[in-house]
Design goal:
Shape: elongated
CATH architecture of the largest domain: Up-down Bundle
Helix content: 55-70%
Keywords: Membrane, Transmembrane, Transmembrane helix
Strand content: 5-15%
Strand order of the largest sheet: 4-3-2-1-5
Oligomer: single chain
CATH topology of the largest domain: Butyryl-CoA Dehydrogenase, subunit A, domain 3
CATH class of the largest domain: Mainly Alpha
Order of helices and strands: HEEEEHHEHH
Distance between the termini: 87 Å
Number of strands: 5
Mean pLDDT: 66
Low-confidence stretches: 63-82, 155-162
Length: 247
């Protein structure tokens, strides 16, 4: 499975594919975390937006700019209500699960690169891929639970309008989790494959065979020309050379 002998075998090729899939899954998960959709609540006075990163409040009475606050910022008059904070804390759990999965995916990708020269790193990369996939699906399930809780919550007043906006973040989570598990499966298959055929040698040998055709044709043409030249020289009339005393 190592590349130190300069050969690209089937297990090595499968491990390269698994590493690329793991990097792709980590990138998709990173995009899902930072592009997570917002959920909007209209309580008649403000539009409260709950996202995985920030809490935003937009005034409907004035055309003021959007006010966004981080989770840690606590100032009098701008912190959301208690029920709003419960939803914010639930979304924070989603964020923690997805960030853990993202870091495990990046570590699994690095371990997969080191797996070319270390069996211990190969085992570690498979464990990290499994944990990354599990945390990704856990974050996706929490994602659904938070949106369902928001739709079923009572924010006081019949005029309260709740709208859940998922966007592509949920789909990216599912796609990233599937990519992690697929990379894990390919990595496991690479341990079962025992074909030591050098994949780089096959096209090189074919290229060498193709390059031999012009040489064979040239040798065949030379072989055809030589008998014809010998036949011409055999029937060529002999030239007589005159000696000085014959003149």
């Amino acid at each position: 499975m190592c590349l130190r002998d300069g050969r690209l075998t089937v297990p090595t090729a499968l491990l390269i594919i698994a590493t690329g899939g793991c990097f792709l899954a980590a990138g998709l998960l990173t995009y899902a975390v930072f592009s997570a959709s917002f959920r909007i609540l209209d309580d008649g006075r403000h539009l409260h937006s709950f996202g995985l990163i920030r809490y935003c409040k937009v005034s409907q009475l004035t055309e003021s700019a959007v006010q966004c606050y981080s989770r840690e910022m606590q100032k009098p008059g701008i912190e959301p209500a208690a029920k709003h904070l419960i939803i914010a804390q639930s979304e924070l759990m989603v964020l923690v699960a997805l960030v853990l999965a993202m870091h495990m995916g990046l570590l699994a990708s690095v371990a997969s690169l080191l797996a070319f020269c270390s069996k211990m790193c190969a085992r570690l990369s498979r464990i990290l891929m499994l944990m990354a996939g599990a945390c990704t699906f856990l974050g996706a399930m929490l994602f659904v639970h938070v949106a369902t809780s928001l739709n079923e919550a009572n924010f006081g007043g019949k005029s309260s309008k709740v709208e859940a906006r998922f966007g592509p973040a949920f789909a990216w989570c599912l796609l990233a989790g599937s990519a992690f598990l697929l990379s894990l499966l390919i990595s496991l298959v690479s341990t079962l494959a025992d074909d030591e055929t050098d994949l780089l040698q096959i096209p090189l040998s074919r290229a060498g065979t193709i390059s031999e055709f012009p040489r064979k044709i040239s040798r065949r043409m030379n072989a055809i020309r030589r008998p014809s030249q010998a036949h011409v020289e055999h029937h060529r009339p002999e030239e007589t050379t005159l000696l000085p005393q014959d003149v």
